[in-house]
Amino acid sequence: MKRYETDFDAALAFLQVSRSTLNRWVHDGKLPARKVGGQWRFSEEDLTRLRDGSGEPAPLVRAREELKTFLESSRANRKGPKNMNAIDTKSQPLAEALVWEAHDRKASELHLQPRKDGVHISVGKEARLETIRVIPADLARELEQAWEEIGLPFGDSGIRRIFLSRAGDQAVNEVSVLLQAIDTLQGRRVTLRFMGGGRIADLDTVAPKADDRAVFERWLKRPNGIILFSGPTGSGKTTTLLSCLQHLAKDAGLAVFSLEYPAYVRVDGVDQVEVPSEDGPVVKAALERIMRMYPNAIGICVETEEAAAAALNMAITGHLVLMQVHAEEHEAAVKRLEQLAGRPVAPSVIGVISQRLKRGDAGGKVAEYRFWEPGGR
Question: Under a CB-based contact definition with an 8 Å cutoff, are residues 245 and 297 in contact?
Answer without folding.
Answer: yes
